[in-house]
Amino acid sequence: MSIWDILEIDPTSEESAIKKAYAKKLKLHHPEDDPKGYQRLREAYDAAMKQAKSQAASLPVFQDEEDESQYEDSEESFDSEQHFFNSNDFFPVPLEEPRTERHPVYAFLQQVKELYDDFYARITPESWQTLMDEDIVWEMEYSQELRDGLISFLEDDHHLPRIVWEVLDNTFGFREDKEELLKHYDEEFVEYMIRQIEGTMELRYDCFVNQEIAFDIEQYLDLRESAQYMLMNGEVERAGDLLEEAHGLFTDDPDLELMRGKYYLEIRKPDEALECFTRVIALQPDDPDGYWQRALLYYDQQEYEAALADCMHLLNKDEGNKDQNVLVLAGRCHLALGNTADGRELIKETLAINKLHFRSYIHWCIAENAYGKTLDPAERKQPLRDDFLFHSFLFLRLTWFYICLYLIVSLLFDLHPYSTGLLLILLLWNAWKIWKVRRVLST
Questions:
Q1: What's the confidence (pLDDT) of residue 51?
Q2: What is the pLDDT of residue 364?
Q3: pTM listed for this prediction
Q4: Tell me, what DSSP letter sits at residue 210?
Q5: DSSP string of 223-250, one letter each residue
Q6: Which residues of the chain have pLDDT under 70?
Q7: What are the transmembrane regions (predicted)?
Q8: HSE (CB half, 13 Å, CA atoms) of 94?
């Protein structure tokens, strides 16, 4: 078995690829649980790194086949009576004990701090990738300490773009080890890290590039993040105070303007919200969020032509992957403007993408009810069939439990006729509710 078979990658001179393969295999061959497997893996890793560095210097690694063959039979050559490690080698002194500057973990965490303190380097993923490629990161004996130290650092200093969080996750496997992290670290912060990695609460940093930071950037980032949290949790008044304080520090952040627009909508100030969404578009013309929020606001204000223009901008920009919600809103704008044919075509397009897209279905019902006489028979047949399938699915979703329970009990016991009558009443009741919903949607 060659070193590449052990690492399970193709021969390469890329050190980052070798390190990633090594880190992945380490999870399967922990030194305490599988010392033989770890020895083979470590020897393969060292040999692969040596070969990669030699190739980078245009020097051959193996002078003959014997050099590489020494790794092929490492399992047989392993002497169980002469272990090459002990447990203390791989689990050194805990981080909380004093460190000297010479300790490699301390030195690495100092590099992390220095990188974080340099704001422009901090928001550059290449800077972090270079740091993550340090040899110590791939040393098994320091891996736990490094992760502990890094997480402790990030608990206090965590304002990083998503792409940097992804670099850290690729190295330390935060998402993959989420359950293990929850046992040892603060649950709220672990969830925060996962959200940042996955981008579910992403706040962008592009607006700071090539900008002179003449204000307290940490204070601003704290305010921006706290305001986002407050808005999501319905604490509108507090969010408004934080947003205005942040806006007083820096005015060219599209994410902040987007949040300010949503805040003004919450307190029923549509004109101020419109200014914010327009400002988002001016700051980042390629960002769809500003157009979408402004289109919704225009529609609510019955400015259908303006709303339609923003929708069409989004649809024309992304023709290969059209957003169904944008298609529906554009169709509604056409219907409101009296453009019946165009409106029906757009809504039909959403149903072609997803027949069970509920918002599309609602507005197709509205279009059919208002303009049904103008539909030809072939055009009516498809929505009628989809209508039947949709409501059949809805009926089964509401009644499957009662039907299954009745069938199981009837197999085990002799049921009184009243039981069958009760089931029929439940089925009829749910059918009536669905009919009422259908009637509301189509009027």
A1: 81
A2: 57
A3: 0.65
A4: T
A5: HHHHHHHHHHTT-HHHHHHHHHHHHHH-
A6: 26-27, 30-32, 56-102, 319-320, 354-387, 438-443
A7: 415-432
A8: 3
For 111-148, the pLDDT digits (tens) are 999 999 999 999 999 999 999 988 888 887 888 889 88
Decide: 46 and 22 in contact? Cβ < 8 Å.
no
Query: Could you state, in order of their start, the residue ranges of all structural domains in the chain?
Result: 3-80, 104-198, 394-441
Burial class of residue 18, CB neighbours in 10 A (0-12, 13-18, 19+): buried
Q: Is 213 helix (H, G, I), strand (E, B) or coil?
A: coil
Rounded to whole angstroms, the Cα distance separating 320 from 424 reads 48
3-state secondary structure 121-136: HHCCHHHHHHHHCCHH
* Type of residue numbered 316: N
- Classify 309 as helix, strand or coil: helix
Output the six-digit token pair for 245. Answer: 């304080």
Give how far the C-alpha of residue 131 lies from the chain's centroid of Cα atoms, to the nearest Å: 24
Q: Which is nearest to 317 in space by CA: 309, 329, 305, 306?
A: 309
In order of 169, 229, 280, the CA distances from 131 in angstroms are 13, 31, 34
User: Which residues make Cβ contacts (< 8 Å) with residue 132, sequence separation at least 6?
Assistant: 167, 168, 170, 171
Q: CA nearest 2: which of 74, 96, 68?
A: 68
DSSP 37-100: HHHHHHHHHHHHHHHHHHHHTT--S-SSHHHHHTTTTHHHH--TTS-S--HHHHS-S-TTS---
Least Cα distance to 149 among 194, 205, 93, 200 occurs for 93
